[in-house]
Amino acid sequence: MAQKAHSLSHTKWMCKYHIVFTPKYRRKVIYNHYRGSLGEIFQRLCSYKGVEMIEGHLMPNHRLLSIPSRMSISSYMG
Predict the structure, then answer these.
(1) Mean pLDDT per segment of 10 residues, for the chain of length 78 residues?
(2) What is the rounded CA–CA span in Å between residue 8 and residue 19?
(3) Is residue 8, in this structure, part of any structural domain at all?
């Protein structure tokens, strides 16, 4: 995994967000039924919104994302 900083004319940044997707009441049913397709769904969402997925293989609900500074976390999630 390369550690690269993004830059503009006067700033440099390297922001990584650890996002945890938790189902309501932490029900395990989502992991049993959709475990195989969760990774594909998250990859499609990241490519659609222009977000780089750094890691996403540890658990089905944990993702490490690099969200651009032009986008807030709430706009990615919403």
Answers:
(1) 72 78 69 73 84 70 72 77
(2) 25
(3) no
